[in-house]
Amino acid sequence: MMYDLRAEVLKIYLKNREERDGFQYTLPSSTSYPHQWLWDSCFHAIVLTHFNVEDAKKELRGLVSGQFENGMIPHIIFRTKDWFTTDIKWGTKDTSSLTQPPLIAYAVWQIFKKDGDHAFLEEMYPQLDAFYRYLLTRDIYEHHLIGIINPDESGEDDSPRFDKELGLPPVHLSHDNNKKRFALIEKNLDWSSLEVQKRDEFFWVEDVPYNVYIVENLEILARISKELRKTEEANYFAREASSIKDAMRKYMIKDGIYWSIAGRDAHKIKIKTWAMFAPLVIGGYTESEAKNLIENFLLNKDEFLSMYPVPTTAMSEDGYHPDEFHNGPASIQPNWRGPVWMTPNWFVYRGLKRYGYNDIAEEIKNKSQDLLEKSGFREYYHPITGHGMGAEDFTWGGLVLDMAESEVESKNS
Ligand code: GLC
After folding, report:
1. Which sign does the torsion angle of CA 49, 51, 57, 59 carry?
2. Hey, which residues does 201 pair with through a beta bridge?
3. Total Cβ atoms within 10 A of residue 336
4. How many angstroms separate the CA atoms of 34 and 119, rounded?
5. What does the pLDDT average to over 174-179?
6. Residues with Cβ within 6 A of ligand 1?
7. How much distance in Å is there from the Cα of 155 to the middle of ligand 1?
8. Fewest CB within 10 angstroms: 192, 225, 327, 344, which?
């Protein structure tokens, strides 16, 4: 029987739907993640636009309800008392003290594209405006690049991009990685009120994907502003997006590849992860750079061309570790250190489409769907065998439906 992607996605989304505190939202996984997460909720809203825009709106209303006074939207809003609220200190009582990839403007725009509802844009505007203005203050060296203060803010918690900055070797136990990241949370609890000179003391990375998300979302916020006839704001956000895009080229490119940078000296973190493909989404590569990137990395069997692409970490990296390892209480959870996750695939898919590499994009979409068919809706998948790992009934597989049903705008539109 033909695999019914729509039906499978809907099943998971309804199963994981939750109503609490007057909000309706979706759990990334009811067994592993019983709260509301920032970028997860953006994905949920995007996927829900393919079923019911009103549910998508509800998801975002819940999300912005956690906004701080300074505009930051936290990466988790705790809505139940169980799970790691008590044993891991994510910061404040009801939410995390960190943020996460800011894809809310994108999600709002997908909703608007479906129903043209200006009232919803108006409703969300103050929160969007405050959130992106807050993020623009995360530029301590005035590079015009936005920094993260903890790997978790990237959404790729234990990516090898952050190993060196955390003082970890390429292969290490998950416990040691967690310990470093949780220690950062404590140290940075009052980050916003730290003296400027102290703000990079513990961890400061100007990450490639994070800045890509910012650029894409500021461009969209400019469109939203224009739609609401807020000309001054529209110009401001468009200008900021373009300055960040320019700064990314200035500081991050080396030999035609973007690398995240860290610290006061803006040193490049030359670890090959899917992050190098992220700038395709914002048209950040020239045509010939994109060709080189795709031919020599994406389609290279020693780097990113696995049986099931796209491995989050290149197969040639020392930190590539797609297998679980257990030795008594000691373990390595592969997480972002090689397995395939649906969000990078969704970004790479959209980036390839933008550059007209439609066949390769289709291949990524098809292989992503193969993973769902073969192994179900899991948190991540082994890039060679395709077996599922991590959380079960995980929602991000819904993005495959978005790949299948959304029109991607090409670079010149
Ligand atoms: C994991 C992922 C993170 C996600 C969260 C909830 O921590 O690394 O990106 O937001 O789970 O799904």
Report:
1. negative
2. none
3. 25
4. 31
5. 96
6. 28, 33, 37, 39-40, 155, 157
7. 6
8. 327
Distance CA 148, CA 162 (A): 11
User: What is the Cα–Cα distance from 329 to 177, expressed in whole angstroms?
Assistant: 15
Closest CA to 272 of 146, 160, 157: 160
Closest Cα partner for 132 from 259, 251, 234, 258? 234
Name the pTM for this structure. Answer: 0.96
Residues of the chain above pLDDT 90, percent: 86
Alpha carbons 25 and 63: distance in angstroms, whole number: 8
170 close to 319: Cβ distance less than 8 angstroms:
yes
DSSP character string of 233-273: HHHHHHHHHHHHHHHHHHHHEETTEE-EEETTTTEEE---B
> Which residue shows structure tokens 């404590």?
186
Sign of the four-CA dihedral 369, 373, 376, 381: negative
Closest C-alpha residue for ligand 1 atom 4: 155
What is the pLDDT confidence band of residue 220, given thresholds at 50, 70 and 90? Answer: very high
Instruction: Select from 308, 307, 335 the least CA-distant residue to 320.
Output: 335
